[in-house]
């Protein structure tokens, strides 16, 4: 089994091993004092893995409750959050009990925010079941729900007590969702490691799932340890996300997040190259790996529409926007630009 230790306001381990879901109860009982575990999940994931997790928790002596909501981003909202809090209260949960978030980033973000806020904070274990959640959202403590007109507008930093990653659960993940996770994996490689980038080109992701997940979690661990509350270096994790979020918004959220991040990485890499900041060979390698993973690198939306959506994004400041700019594979830089300058970057980046 692989173990990555995350040092933050609460320190914890991320365990990665195929089949781990069946011994989750053992790990959780070693971390949590309370006697009740609430599995929070969506309908898809609960149907596939809820019973196995319940058995494992019961075997370790927990009273087990389940709270299941419909899958999809729409459920990451105040209504579902409030109903979950009411459920916790009705069932007399206390701060020493635990929420076990079983699912992708939607489940992890919503259940994490409920754990952070119920009675000012209760136990939280993340069991991510999408590649995106394994390499990104389950680690680092960002929790949130959406408001009607803004994503992740209500949330908190709340580190889990542990993360249990069972790569076998990815066997049932739709291919399109798996590829979205691959976009985030490629993001880590472009951000932080030429060696990792080369290994992805060679062996891909599926062939070495445990190694790939562990490598990404280690990179995220290092970034979170140096900037847990996202005031500086952690912004590097937004590589591809500024334009990516704009593409998602222009498409009315029909382009999936990972696909949009791939487009965003391609756009920012082309623009950096045209400004002499990223060598030709590195640009071609970035575009090539995205295409090899079946991810898009072009967008049909005009620069002005993308720019308008970029300005509307919650991460945009009132006068400046911080772009994550690749300088070579394995190294990126934060560049604080005047808002108006960003239009030129987008124009340059969407040209083939
Ligand atoms: P998701 O949670 O919506 O899962 C995608 C789909 O896959 C859902 O339909 C789900 O039911 C299904 N699914 C999940 N696991 C499955 C499995 N093993 N087998 C079959 N189906 C499965 O989406 P996601 O991409 O995991 O997460 C996206 C969310 O994560 C967004 O809300 C985003 O804002 C958030 N996010 C948070 C952070 C963070 O740091 N907290 C980071 C990145 C993204
Ligand atoms: N997913 C971005 C972050 O954790 O900061």
UniProtKB/TrEMBL annotation:
<feature type="domain" description="3-dehydroquinate synthase C-terminal">
    <location>
        <begin position="181"/>
        <end position="315"/>
    </location>
</feature>
<dbReference type="GO" id="GO:0009073">
    <property type="term" value="P:aromatic amino acid family biosynthetic process"/>
</dbReference>
<comment type="similarity">
    <text>Belongs to the sugar phosphate cyclases superfamily. Dehydroquinate synthase family.</text>
</comment>
<comment type="pathway">
    <text>Metabolic intermediate biosynthesis; chorismate biosynthesis; chorismate from D-erythrose 4-phosphate and phosphoenolpyruvate: step 2/7.</text>
</comment>
<keyword id="KW-0057">Aromatic amino acid biosynthesis</keyword>
<dbReference type="GO" id="GO:0005737">
    <property type="term" value="C:cytoplasm"/>
</dbReference>
<dbReference type="GO" id="GO:0046872">
    <property type="term" value="F:metal ion binding"/>
</dbReference>
<dbReference type="InterPro" id="IPR030960">
    <property type="entry name" value="DHQS/DOIS_N"/>
</dbReference>
<keyword id="KW-0963">Cytoplasm</keyword>
<keyword id="KW-0456">Lyase</keyword>
<keyword id="KW-0862">Zinc</keyword>
<feature type="binding site">
    <location>
        <position position="257"/>
    </location>
    <ligand>
        <name>Zn(2+)</name>
    </ligand>
</feature>
<feature type="domain" description="3-dehydroquinate synthase N-terminal">
    <location>
        <begin position="67"/>
        <end position="178"/>
    </location>
</feature>
<keyword id="KW-0520">NAD</keyword>
<dbReference type="GO" id="GO:0009423">
    <property type="term" value="P:chorismate biosynthetic process"/>
</dbReference>
<feature type="binding site">
    <location>
        <position position="151"/>
    </location>
    <ligand>
        <name>NAD(+)</name>
    </ligand>
</feature>
<keyword id="KW-0170">Cobalt</keyword>
<comment type="function">
    <text>Catalyzes the conversion of 3-deoxy-D-arabino-heptulosonate 7-phosphate (DAHP) to dehydroquinate (DHQ).</text>
</comment>
<dbReference type="Pfam" id="PF01761">
    <property type="entry name" value="DHQ_synthase"/>
</dbReference>
<dbReference type="GO" id="GO:0008652">
    <property type="term" value="P:amino acid biosynthetic process"/>
</dbReference>
<feature type="binding site">
    <location>
        <begin position="129"/>
        <end position="130"/>
    </location>
    <ligand>
        <name>NAD(+)</name>
    </ligand>
</feature>
<keyword id="KW-0479">Metal-binding</keyword>
<keyword id="KW-0028">Amino-acid biosynthesis</keyword>
<feature type="binding site">
    <location>
        <position position="142"/>
    </location>
    <ligand>
        <name>NAD(+)</name>
    </ligand>
</feature>
<dbReference type="InterPro" id="IPR016037">
    <property type="entry name" value="DHQ_synth_AroB"/>
</dbReference>
<dbReference type="Pfam" id="PF24621">
    <property type="entry name" value="DHQS_C"/>
</dbReference>
<protein>
    <recommendedName>
        <fullName>3-dehydroquinate synthase</fullName>
        <ecNumber>4.2.3.4</ecNumber>
    </recommendedName>
</protein>
<feature type="binding site">
    <location>
        <begin position="169"/>
        <end position="172"/>
    </location>
    <ligand>
        <name>NAD(+)</name>
    </ligand>
</feature>
<keyword id="KW-0547">Nucleotide-binding</keyword>
<feature type="binding site">
    <location>
        <begin position="105"/>
        <end position="109"/>
    </location>
    <ligand>
        <name>NAD(+)</name>
    </ligand>
</feature>
<dbReference type="GO" id="GO:0003856">
    <property type="term" value="F:3-dehydroquinate synthase activity"/>
</dbReference>
<dbReference type="InterPro" id="IPR056179">
    <property type="entry name" value="DHQS_C"/>
</dbReference>
<feature type="binding site">
    <location>
        <position position="241"/>
    </location>
    <ligand>
        <name>Zn(2+)</name>
    </ligand>
</feature>
<dbReference type="GO" id="GO:0000166">
    <property type="term" value="F:nucleotide binding"/>
</dbReference>
<feature type="binding site">
    <location>
        <position position="184"/>
    </location>
    <ligand>
        <name>Zn(2+)</name>
    </ligand>
</feature>
<dbReference type="InterPro" id="IPR030963">
    <property type="entry name" value="DHQ_synth_fam"/>
</dbReference>
<dbReference type="InterPro" id="IPR050071">
    <property type="entry name" value="Dehydroquinate_synthase"/>
</dbReference>
